[in-house]
Amino acid sequence: ACPCALGLATPIAMLVGSAAAAERGLLVKGADVLEAARDLRAVVFDKTGTLTAGRPVVEEVAVLSEGENEFSILTAAMGVEWGTTHPLALAIQQAVQEREILINQANYEGHQTYPGMGATAIEVSSGATVVVGNVALLDEHNVFVDDQAHEVARRFGAEGKTAIYVAVGGRLVGLVGCTDALRPEAPAVVAALRAQGLQVRLLTGDRAEVALAAARRLGLRPEEVIANVRPARKALAVRALAAELGGPVAMVGDGVNDAPALAAAGVGVAVGGGADVAGE
């Protein structure tokens, strides 16, 4: 028997599969990706911008220091986040615009970004360092977080709000609570993957309370949530899950922070801003 038919059928099948994916807005990097997808054990999702709309809004500002108010906290946060394109930074920028707060951007310099943690800048008028981000970034800058702040952050998390800590001159002045709505189709996607026999995991750098609040709406169990994971460790989490399940897993992510995890997965699926990374 001549093997020519098989030799022709295989690449044609791959070509047809890639074309069908393209019609649905999916760019498949190579035929090997389709082959690897056949053996997947699980699909791991990033949260922000992947399962959520990626358009968070400021819902609440908690004042934690005497002499401060909502406007001063947002002003400090905006001074650090000016020009940044991270979704949470954009939420702060939008809140400042809606409240018509005027910012002297020249009063902030020396901006530094810490992937998965936040950013800092120097307030020129006072010489104080302004830290905007999560509690891990505050720890790195020796900012004390008291019980009141922890309680506010826990409440934010239970309400599905991501807490952004704002510190000025080594003193925590407030927390900004942001919400980001789930994509309407997200719960159905999770259910459809499970119906195909795949396990689903939520992998995020957010606090456990925020991640669990999202998981409940997605129909995920607490043990299917991996929270408080920095970008550099997401790749390790993906590899660990593949080893645990004894087969390849897919990682679905959005943004540069997910690039290592996308590369570590058996199949990396980049959406939104992450698609630009995948194209490299």
Summarize the structure in words.
GO terms for molecular function: ATP binding; ATP hydrolysis activity; copper ion binding; P-type divalent copper transporter activity. Its main location: membrane. One of its GO terms (cellular component) is membrane. By secondary structure, this protein is α/β, with parallel strands linked by helices. The protein folds into two domains: 110 residues, HAD superfamily/HAD-like (Rossmann fold, 3-Layer(aba) Sandwich); 126 residues, Calcium-transporting ATPase, cytoplasmic domain N, CATH 3.40.1110. It contains twelve helices and eleven strands. The model has no long low-confidence stretch (mean pLDDT 88). Helices cover 43% and strands 22% of the residues.
